[in-house]
Amino acid sequence: MTTQSNQKSHLYTLMTVWFFWSFVAASNGILIPLFKEKFGLEQWQAQLVDFAFYIAYTVGSILYFIVSSVIKSDILNRIGYKNGIVYGLIISALGTLLFYPAAEMKSFPLLLSALFIVGLGFSLQQTSTQPFMIALGPPETGSHRINLGGAVNNLGGTIGPVIISFAIFGSIAADAAKNATIESVKLPYLILGALFVLLAIFFKVSKLPRITNDEEVEIGTGVLKYPQLVLGMIAIFMYVGVEVTIGSNLGEYLKVTQGLDSSQISHYVSMFWGSMMIGRWTASISNFEVSPTTKKLLTVLVPFVAFAIVLGVNALHGSDMSDLYSYAICVIIMIGAFFYCDEKPVRTLLVFSGLGAVAMLIGVLASGTVTLFAFISGGLFCSVLWPCIFSLGTAGLGKYTNQGSAYMIMMICGGAVMPVLQGIAADTIGIKQSYFVPIICFAYLVFFGIRVQGVLKKQGLDFDNAVVKGGKGGH
């Protein structure tokens, strides 16, 4: 039986892989304008960069089920979560290698294929990592451990675009893409591939336990009989969709409504993604063994430290961040929500989804800075939703846990679909009014929180009550 100290060590090892998921995903925003200019693409064609990356999660999950059916055994239960991560890293490394010939041939389809393969590897990594983290402690506190991974994830998302931009363009200036070529992507992604290989070796030699599902695992679609999983799949689709679509359409909102050009909008978009980091860093405090007084103090201090880091990174980019200082008001509202939620996963899901819906509604109805801050604050309220949804959606699945995890990862395709839907809405009724799409997404997440709580209670599972009974210290 693993000790609490070993569990901590295993958790920190698993956290390392989270960094690269957001590092690459956020860096796609650097590739989109570069490819659009160099290949002479339409805007919808340039958006295929994100589409190729996110749709890979769905394809990866489908392949997971096909292979499991062919071998008549659940893949992860045969190879273990640890090896699933290792093989996923190797697949992603192969994708980065494809950047070299794709750039040499100046082939946009081949570059999309490279991103697709990277995403395919990420699909297997995520399917393996998240149930692994939940298995390292009580299921009712699984969302806390996933939040810790999310904190590292968003650190990668904050610095990834800056590093990739500098590596490709030799500068982090907004207009540096004009002097770049398609061949500029070769070296950064080869280095990224080498890092994937090194990380795979690190995981292979690590002392992570070989965890599999103890129960007799079934393959196929049997897991769909669990309503929490079906509701959770839709919730993941809506969550990833709302997270990506708010950020993807923010630049267009600023251009249309405030007349800003590309060089003037980057720090606003960065603050949206930085808001994800602010929230997840705050949520990760639950994983550390500190006194209640210290925890309360950190809940106030950590968000502002993260806020300062986001401001600082953008200041290095040459952006004037003074107009975002008053965004601290939104951070204070988020801190209040954390105290009220008291680490309870269902309450957290309901409160943060509700605040997200209200923020989007304020954004649509208000104007000027209020609208801008309302839309950006969507990042704060999205920040802690994934672990709540994932842990609640896979709760009580038993022998279907691996299968349920793969189904949940499949629904990351919401990040490919919802931005397109909001784009269509923007073309039809205007960019500001198109933010009714995120309102609908958040509204479903509120419904999910209410519904799944009832479903799980009928199965004898009450996560919020279990957190209270079990205490809220470290794990």
From TrEMBL:
It is a multi-pass membrane protein. The keyword Transmembrane helix applies. PROSITE patterns: MFS. Gene3D superfamilies: MFS general substrate transporter like domains. Residues 1-212 form the Major facilitator superfamily (MFS) profile domain. Signal peptide: none annotated. The chain crosses the membrane at residues 12-31, 51-71, 83-102, 108-124, 155-174, 186-205, 226-246, 266-285, 297-318, 324-341, 348-366, 372-393, 405-425, 431-450. Its main location: membrane. PANTHER family: L-FUCOSE-PROTON SYMPORTER, PROTEIN TSGA. This is Sugar MFS transporter. It comes from Arcicella rigui.
